[in-house]
Structure formats: structure tokens, C-alpha cells
Amino acid sequence: MSTHPTVLDVTDRIRERSRGPRSAYLERLAEIRNRDRGSDRMGCANVAHAVAGIPANDKFKVVTERAPNIGIVTAYNDMLSAHAPYQGYPDIIKHEARSLGATAQVAGGVPAMCDGVTQGTPGMELSLFSRDVIAMGTAIALTHDMFDGALLLGVCDKIVPGLLIGALHFGHLPTVFVPAGPMPSGLSNGEKSKVREQAAQGLVGRQGLLDAEMAAYHTMGTCTFYGTANSNQMLLEAMGLHVPGTAFIQPGDAMRETLTREAVRTVLGRASEAKFDCPPIGEMVDERCIVNAMVALLATGGSTNHLIHWVAVARSAGIVIDWDDFSRLSDVVPLLTRVYPNGSADVNAFQAAGGPGFVIGELLDAGLMHADVLTVRAGGIREFANIPSLADDKRLVWNSAAPSKDDTVARPVESPFSATGGLKLLNGNLGRSVIKVSSVPDDRHVIEAPARVFDSQAALHQAFTAGELDRDVVCVVRWQGPQANGMPELHKLTPPLSVLQGKGFRVALVTDGRMSGASGKVPAAIHVSPEAAAGGPLAKVRDGDVVRLDAVAGTLAVLVPDDEWAEREIAKLPEAKRIADGHGLGRELFAGMRRNALTAEEGACSWL
Question: Known binder of ligand: residue 156?
Fold first, then answer.
């Protein structure tokens, strides 16, 4: 199947736009790759320090036998259910490496915070920039420069983008991501959301809400909804950076350890007993690879956080993408899955239906993904259309993920849930924004109503509780961008807005903050750029202004005469709010990141 013309055109535009920075990036990689290996190149004292803490046999392998040495970067902690399984992974990796005549060292650990724990608290204001801290932590780990390859252990929201950004700054290394998998299904996401809405109305008390939440989030593994964490795993599969089909195998599955050992074989170029040099990650992640990730995101209705994160990831490899690229691809990429919040199924049901392998196979067959890309395996991206299993002799085998085992969860390109990817770019006198419409009812794609302007999530909640929002309303929540307060997610807004919509009111959210696509059925124009704190137009909006959000036409505008709008004063971030949002619980330490952050469409990068 030939590649779809729009996919080719978008890729060509990205390639042309990126020609200068990508060429410079590849030149740096080539220069680094031509050096001698670490223990031969470095001074004797440097080498002695590097191997002082490992067993004598491993020292001998590294220094005398000149065996490959794998650097492990881990996001293990037991605060995150998704990362708790990683505790024993380094020992498994080292054991497998030794059996193959190689060695492995934990090069370093990176912080990993849980947005589920910090949601709606001051800690959430560190969340976005934790991605850049993780990228820097990855760089610190790998800068010991004694490694011939890397294995990256991380799953959740900012952790995977941070690890990937850091790894791309060491793009000369063959690198494989090692996931841990989702937790078994507990209380369904639909039931959990129902209880949250009831709690927002005062119909369920704290104990009832706590019982529901603990039944939903109940053991090790990622949360089972298709948010940023699980979207990460889908994108890594589409980029060919995993052992194929690894993403959604649960932590307790007997296959999980075998797949982790296969990751060691893969990074050493011995995957599936076939000699193959795993390419450097900086060569693998090219324009075609990035486009494949974008297509997979759209085809699965994934997290809108990746309209920020993957811009930053691409920049790390010298590639420049923007929201227009996502929007153009969304026009031709069909929606192939219904996974909560875009449906009732969770990721375990998605995996049972065929998972990432089914989606990738469908996209390749339709010419919607580039087939001619490098991956960590010799078989290329087509291998990722398969799903792994254990044979009777405990060997890994892969079989086609097609056909779908449940067409209420995953459908072929010929009969999609929607002809387009469900992501729309909005432009207008309120700036540039994105909206995820894949789960928004068709009769809610256009909302026109008076604005109510809020400076915080808490202020909106207070107005909701007081009954002030029981009407058609566009809630504008500003001062939530990267420069204002670190661009926290605003999930606490979902229950009250859902309640209002359930009462029959026409409501929408407009914000320069994030919602990660989990706004669900409520229309939400998010990531508005430029943000209010940078003088963006949200700083001009006043209570009562009529705002029109039109996801059909792709517009976001305040219906105020042009001359009046041009002359209207731009409000300033209140000094009391700036001080309050910038202090306490570690927020002072991130002041430099807030000050230097680029726009959301530029990846909210703090390091460029």
C-alpha cells in the first residue's frame, strides 16, 4: 500500500522546515559515534570510578573483555502504581545481560510524580516541568558516558516524554523502552465518573467517593483509562521503540519478565536469536517516525498532552512540528478505537481486542503510517502489528493482532468510529487552541454563550456550588499557562461541567491550561496560546462577553466588535496570585522554568 498523500505532504513539510536543525543534530551524532568506546577512551581514574561498585566479573568484562555495557535509567518508586513493578527490573536486566556476555549498570534514577495524587493541589503546578527535570536527570545518568546502549524504565505522563527527550540528547546510543503494563481492571471508568459527578452534586459523601476511587485504582500498574500514560505506550509502539506488543501486558503476567529479558537482547542486537544492530535512537526518531506517532495518537483518540510533549520530543531530535501538522493529519486519519474517556472500554479491553498491534497493522495497510522506518528490531514497524505470547517451551512468539476481537472497542479502517481523528485546531481572536471532539456529542461541537471568567479552578468550583453557573455559559479559566503557574491539568473541572451539561445547559471550557483530553463529553478549548500571562487575548475577556467555540469551522472567538477588542486593556496577572502560585511546596525552585517556558505549541520547553 502506497503512503497516503496527506501523510507524505505533512512529512515533507516537516522535513523541509527541519532541514537545518536536523542536519546539525545528525552531524553531532556522527561525531560522537566515531569515538572509541568509553573504557578505552576515558582516563584510568575515570574508568576505575565507573566500575568500582560492580562485581569483579563485571569489571573484567567491561575493562578487559571490552563487553557491551548497558545503562539503565529507571523511574522506579512505589508512590506510582505504574512504576512500582520496576523495583526488580534491574536485577532481571543484569542477569540477562551477563548470560549474553554483556553487563548492565543502573546509570541513574529520575523523579516520577503522579498526576493522580497531585491533581487539584499545588504539586500539580510542578507536573509539566517535571518532564524537563526528568530529561535532565536522564542526561545526568547517561553523561557518565560508559555505555554502549540504554534501557529506559518509565511509563507515566511526563516520565516517558522526559526520558525520550533526555535519550535523544544521547542519540548515538541504541535505546529501548521497557514498560511495566496496566493494572487489572477494577471499578469501571464509567462507574467511577458517575460517582464523581454525584459527589460534585453532594449526592455522595467523602467515604462513598473514596471507596469508588480505591476500587478503581487498586494495585500495581498504570491506571486503566486511556490518558497520557497509556497514550505514551501507544506512541512508543508506533515509533518502534519497544519490544513489539509490550505496552499493555499486565505486571503480573508470566510474559512480562520474558519481555523484559527480550528488551536486553534487543538493545544488544540479539533479538529473537537473530544478529541485528539496534540503531541509535537519534537515527530512528526521524520525521517519518514522529509522523507515525502523531497518526497513532489521532487514530486512538489519545491524550492532547502529546500536542505539547511530542513537539518537545521532536525538537530534541532536530525536528520542528506544530499543531497545523496534527490538524492536517487528523483530517485524514480515522478514529479506530473507543477507549475511556472516548468510550466505555479500558486499556485491558483494548489489549484483548487487539491493542496497539491491531491499530498499527490497520494504519500500515491503509498507507497512513510510514512503513520504511527504522525500529529497534530487524523486522521494522510491521513487526509491531503483532501481539506476543509464550509458546509451550516458554519462548516468545508473535502472531498477527488482526482481526479485531471486539469491534465495539477497535475497528478496521474500512468501518471506523469516525472518519477523522477527532482533534481540531481552533483559531480566532482568542488565539490558537485545540479541542478533542472524539467523545463530545455532535450537537455540542458549536457552543455560543456568555463568558464567565475565572482566575483559578477553585473560583469556578465556588461559583458552581453557589448555583451561579446554572445557565448556558462558556467558562474561561485563565492564568493557567506555562509561564503563569506551570500549566497544571484542570481535571477537577470535569465533574461540575459535566453536571451542568447533564442539566441541559450549553456549556464549554476555554483555558490556557491543560485537560489532557479527559474533558470527555464537555467541549473544551485547551492550551490556548499565547497564554494570558504572556499578554494573550484571554487576558482581555470580561464576564458577559459572548464567546463562540466552533469545532466544525475550527474557530474560537469572542464576539466583540474589532475596534472595541483592539482597544480593550490587557489584564495583568494579579500580583497576589503570582506570589501565591509561585511559592510553597517547592514551587520557588521552578521559577526559572516558568520564566523561560516557550508556548504550549512550542512544546512548553524550558531548555531552548
Answer: yes
Task: Enumerate the H helices of 38-102 as residue ranges.
Answer: 38-41, 44-51, 56-63, 89-99
pLDDT score for 244:
97
Q: Is 475 one of the annotated binding-site residues?
A: no
For residue 519, the 8-state DSSP code is T
Asked if residue 362 is part of any domain, the answer here is yes
At residue 274, the pLDDT reads 60
- Helix (H), strand (E) at residue 565: helix 562-567
Q: How many distinct structural domains can be found in the chain? A: 3
C-alpha distances (whole Å) from 296 to each of 59, 236, 311, 585 are 43, 10, 15, 37
Report the C-alpha gap between 576 and 533 in whole angstroms.
14
Task: Supply the pTM of this predicted model.
Answer: 0.95
**Which phi and psi (to 5°) does residue 409 adopt?**
-115, -45
Regions of the chain where pLDDT drops below 70: 272-275, 517-519
Residues 6+ apart with CB under 8 A from 148: 37, 38, 68, 69, 70, 173, 174
Are residues 316 and 198 part of one domain?
no
How many angstroms separate the Cα of 292 from the Cα of each of 8, 378, 582?
Answer: 11, 18, 38
Q: What is the pLDDT of residues 81-97, one digit of tens each?
A: 999 999 999 999 999 99
Domain membership of residue 196 as a residue range: 192-218
Domain presence at residue 60 = no
Is the same domain home to 382 and 457? no
